[in-house]
Amino acid sequence: DWFAAQDASDHLERVFRLSKLKYAVMTNIPFAPEEAEHWTASPQPPLTPRLKTALRVDPMLVGDWRGICSVLRRASPPHPLSMEGCV
Q1: C-alpha–C-alpha distance, residues 53 and 49, integer Å
Q2: Core-most of 23, 58, 68, 83, by most CB within 10 Å?
Q3: Which letter, b or e, does each residue of 49-69 get, where b requires 16 or more Cβ atoms within 10 Å of its Cβ?
Q4: What is the widest separation between alpha-carbon atoms in the chain?
Q5: Which pLDDT score is estimated for 17?
Q6: For the CA atoms of the chain, what is the radius of gyration?
Q7: Strand, helix or coil at 51?
Q8: pTM to 2 decimal places
């Protein structure tokens, strides 16, 4: 397969250059379990300057406290489940 033979970083750079894009914005939802694990990965994979990050807080805005608390309970180290002590 042609894609499998490509270096991911080189291919990404080629796509951006050919499409004349400076960068793309990736949204990340820290309260989605499948995304939260990437925020705590160690070591963090290098991120090209072509990819910018933006934090989505949709779950907070719609009041999905059950989902948010579920992710926070599984976090390491565990985070407090209340707003007490926030400055």
Answers
A1: 10
A2: 68
A3: eeeeeeeeeebeeeeeeeebe
A4: 54
A5: 96
A6: 17
A7: strand
A8: 0.60
Peptide bond into 49 cis (omega under 30): no
One-letter amino acid at 58 equals D
Helices (H), the chain: 8-19, 33-39, 58-61, 65-74
Sign of CA dihedral 34, 39, 43, 48: positive
Give every residue of the chain whose pLDDT is below 50, as ranges. 85-87
**Torsion sign across C-alpha atoms 38, 44, 48, 54:** positive
Q: How far apart are CA 24 and CA 86, in angstroms?
A: 33
